[in-house]
């Protein structure tokens, strides 16, 4: 396995949800790095900067200001390299319509908040496989 630490790009506007992710994931993966941006527009800018490290997995909220998760997924889908990155949605929406739309946009997994230990482990498995 690559000696490089897995990087998780957290796209989340809510400070409490971001705190939970930054508290929960390191319990299962001390060597993981988590980089947070607050919305899809910031995530888009993150990827435009070629000096930024490519994440192993993107952990994405759906409902955010400026550019929501679905809009960001649509932007990612336009880039052949970016659409290969695994994306995990962690949203407060349990709507079957949102789930279906996200699957159509290429999401690897869709989970409803809150983040649990089992969800954390699945996200980290994806980070190590990528």
UniProtKB/TrEMBL annotation:
Q: Which GO terms describe its biological process?
A: phosphorelay signal transduction system
Is Phosphoprotein among the key words of this record? yes
Q: Which residues carry this modification: 4-aspartylphosphate?
A: 61
- Superkingdom is Bacteria
Q: Does the keyword Phosphoprotein apply?
A: yes
Query: Which InterPro entries does the UniProt entry name for this protein?
Result: CheY-like_superfamily, Sig_transdc_resp-reg_receiver, TCS_response_regulator
Record-annotated Response regulatory domain positions: 7-128
The entry's keywords: Phosphoprotein
Which PANTHER family does the annotation name? RESPONSE REGULATOR RCP1, RESPONSE REGULATOR RCP1-RELATED
Question: What is the recorded name of this protein?
Answer: Response regulator
Species, as recorded: Fulvivirga marina
The opening ranks of the lineage are:
Bacteria, Pseudomonadati, Bacteroidota, Cytophagia, Cytophagales
